[in-house]
Write a structure and sequence with these properties.
CATH class of one domain: Alpha Beta
Structural class: alpha/beta
Largest sheet: 7 strands, mixed
CATH architecture of one domain: 3-Layer(aba) Sandwich
Distance between the termini: 27 Å
Strand content: 25-35%
Radius of gyration: 16 Å
Length: about 180
């Protein structure tokens, strides 16, 4: 740990499981209980910062919505700027975007055009990785803007859904603090 008294098992215990959300059979991993715990939040950001610090990033990019919480705090810890990666139509001004496939349909992620300078090193952050589709799309969007995505960080990984493997196959170093079984 990074100077914190909480272990990763302690952090896992702060994550609430909500059965059958958003649909039957899904065990939703809710980090809001972890975020509300001052020691837990400090420990998560400290752990993420310890992993990210060696890549000497210029920016942290957070994926809407809980990736904003972790990403902004991580950017402060690392002394970098923060870039929001948002769902379509939520950013003012000129944006660039990428469409990606979901289990049922498609979605779109956007960022401000020119917000990340060519060659900037970026750490991509979200609260949880499941299948990896959203993170892959966010990485593609950043790369299309000329950024180097140095790594992707997550508080939670659901290994059964294969997201970290998908990102690794795309050449993106990926780390998660906690693994949970199931969906």
């Amino acid at each position: 740990m990074s100077g914190n008294d909480l272990t990763r098992d302690d952090l896992k215990a702060l994550v609430r499981a909500i059965p059958d959300f958003p649909k039957p059979g899904i065990q939703f991993r809710d980090i809001t209980t972890l975020l509300a715990d001052p020691a837990g939040l400090k420990a998560v950001i400290g752990e993420l910062a310890a992993i990210a610090r060696p890549v000497d990033a210029d920016f942290v990019a957070g994926i809407e919505a809980r990736g904003f919480i972790l990403g902004a705090a991580l950017a402060v810890a690392l002394g970098t700027g923060f870039v929001p990666i948002r769902k379509a139509g939520k950013l003012p001004g000129k944006t660039v975007g990428v469409d990606y496939v979901l289990e049922y349909g498609t979605d779109r992620l956007e960022m401000h055009d020119g917000q990340v300078p060519m060659g900037a090193r970026v750490v991509l952050v979200d609260d949880l990785i499941a299948t990896g589709g959203t993170a892959l799309a966010a990485g593609q969007l950043l790369r299309e803007q000329g950024a180097e995505v140095a790594m992707a960080l997550f508080a939670i990984n659901l290994p059964a859904l294969g997201g970290m493997k998908a990102l690794a196959a795309d050449g993106l170093p990926t780390f998660a603090l906690m693994d949970f079984d199931g969906h």
